[in-house]
Amino acid sequence: MGNLDQNRAYEVAGHFRRLGVPVVLGGIHATMCQDEALRHADSIVTGEAESVWPRVLEDARLGRLKSRYEGGRAELANIPIARHDLLAGRYALGAIQTTRGCPLNCSFCSVTAFNGAYYRQRPIEDVIREKHVLVVDDNLIGTKPEHIARAKDLFRAMIEANLRKEWIAQATINFADDEELMELAAKAGCNGVFIGFESLDPGKLLELGKKFSLMKNRDFRASVRRIQRHNIVVVGSFIIGLDVDEPGIGKRIAEVANWYGIDNLNALFLTPLPGTRLWDTMKSEDRIPLNTFPEDWKYYTLTFPVARYKHLSPNDILREMHSCNATFYSMPNILRRVWNSVWRRRKPALSLVGNLSYRNNIRMGLKAHDNFRRQVGDRLG
């Protein structure tokens, strides 16, 4: 039960409870909002569930289910392999997790609050045995030399296993610093990395906990180019709504993203999620107007401006998001990126499909934002 699907989880839970079926909720949201989750379930599991799940099932079987179970943080060497064989039908993508935790501890991210800043890795042989390689790690390669060494060993094992699968992953920009790492990743099937650039302002990167991105006076454009030379697509994420952001930030982000040369841009609204430092700060400053829960959780998807922003009104920030997307995904810019992919022999078909998909999402986003303003505009101010 993550932050983005809690209302649907509550709806499903209510259905089964009405049928007399015991319901257990867990995950990030149930951990951060325990009392709320308990109103919709017979029991909750906080933290990572692997260590306590057998006990939960046994207690449920014996009719002695407790209201709360504390999972803590699991030893990844003891996690059983996922039963992908139980999924009916064919799926275009499978998912696998090779690490948990993130050493960056960004203020807006719930990963560290839930999984911890300690970077834990699953045994490589367990990862290879799963053979489902849409990598869902929050940070695949980590930041320390020993993290990078382990990532290289993982890629070597994937190459040796000859999985013949293409995959994408989330990573920090330091992915670009090691030629051997990128070469091994590409040979192991990596065709894309999702990198959080977040802000154009160096001071704000420090505040967000992204100081790692500022090390070595990094040239982001050169870093992106190094990754792309290995035929790996770069998707860049930026946040709109930081305290330094003023009118014009949307177009500036699009122009900088174009300058970096990233293949796709994913711009998101700064969103306070429960359990994060950002939540604590904004709540203390009375900057969270959409606070009728659980109903308002449906807006906490990173695609709606749910907070009060220092220099941007609700209408302003929506205009900035639309300006950002319209600039980056204009047809001339899309055609330029596709032509560059053709010229450099870098998956032009993937570039075209990806850019047109994002462009289509812009139209859907405009409608969603219009509905959002009609539904909650008076509460945003």
Structural commentary:
With 381 residues, this protein is α/β, with parallel strands linked by helices. It folds into two domains: 6-70, no CATH class; 81-380, Alpha-Beta Horseshoe (pyruvate-formate lyase- activating enzyme), CATH 3.80.30.20. The chain is built from 15 helices and eleven strands. A four-stranded parallel sheet has the order 8-9-10-11. A three-stranded parallel sheet has the order 1-2-3. A two-stranded parallel ribbon has the order 4-7. The two termini are 31 Å apart.
Q: What would you call the shape?
A: globular
CATH classification class of the largest domain? Alpha Beta
Number of domains: 2
Question: What value does the average pLDDT take?
Answer: 86
The N- and C-terminal alpha carbons lie at a distance of 31 Å
One letter per element, helices H and strands E, the order comes to HEHHEHEEEHEHEHEHEHHEHEHHHH
> What is the fold named in CATH at topology level of the largest domain?
pyruvate-formate lyase- activating enzyme
How many DSSP E strands?
11
What is the makeup of the main sheet? Answer: 4 strands, parallel
Q: With helices defined by DSSP (H or I, 4 residues minimum), what is the helix count?
A: 15
Poorly predicted regions: none
Q: Summed up, what is this model?
A:
With 381 residues, the protein is of the alpha/beta class. It is 44% helix and 12% strand.
List the main descriptive attributes of the protein structure presented here.
single chain, alpha/beta, pyruvate-formate lyase- activating enzyme, 44% helix, three-stranded parallel beta sheet, 11 strands, globular
